[in-house]
Protein: 4-hydroxy-tetrahydrodipicolinate synthase
Organism: Candidatus Nitrobium versatile
Amino acid sequence: MFKGSIVALVTPFRNGAFDEKAYGDLIEWHIAQGTHGIVPCGTTGEASTLSFEEHYRVIEVAVEAVNKRIPVIAGTGANATDEAIDLTKRAKQLGADGALVVTPYYNKPTQEGLYRHYKAIAGAVDIPLVLYNVPGRTAVNLLPATVARLAEIRNVVGIKEATGDMKQASELIRLCGDRLSVVSGDDFTTLPMLCLGGRGAISVTANVAPGDSAGMFNAWERGDIAKARELHYKLEPVNAAMFIETNPIPVKTAVALMGRITDELRLPLCEMSAANKEKLAGVLKNAGII
């Protein structure tokens, strides 16, 4: 259902508040650049520092700005199942096309607990669900066997696989086949995952290079492997630069250097060090982004 270059969109702030105008402008730019989908309120969108009211408003603005032109997959994960259900219900009411639901964090559920968590959400809200596995942040790994069980549920339609482990990705795709849209959650693994049978990426890098990110997927889809490989290697220095400090600090700084937003972050995130900002600017200049 969901495929291509799907941007995990930054949430711009101005003077401490959500900058709705800048957000709408970003979405228009992404659509013009060929981005295949928008994720509001993901990790890169600083969902963890948004109030519930802000969270809902960011989703609402995204849905209104996109206006059905491409899918909107709203981040609705939480470490309490009831809270994730409430967030997902609201996302559906606001018009989201799907929900991206990160594994519960901090409480470290078992595989059976993870299965029951997602099954409960899927049963409570009739909306396409994309699982989100990012153990580097959540301290729990949603294993392929558990995902295969979840893939039997009608409205579990995809997974953002962000382990960076190609062996796990391969096993995931082997077990789930066409039942699930597997997308990369790490930009450097997007092309390798396409080779294994993945369907694209929920991307950080697409925030700054949407045309090339979408172009790599489009080239792969039309069988132009050489072009896809060329764009992969072109994007690799940018992919690396997006993580020279904790995401989303570098990407938000990069979008600000492009003149599209301010570089405001919310504590406990803070501005980049001067040395790293200089390195980031150098990568962006070399890539022709600024």
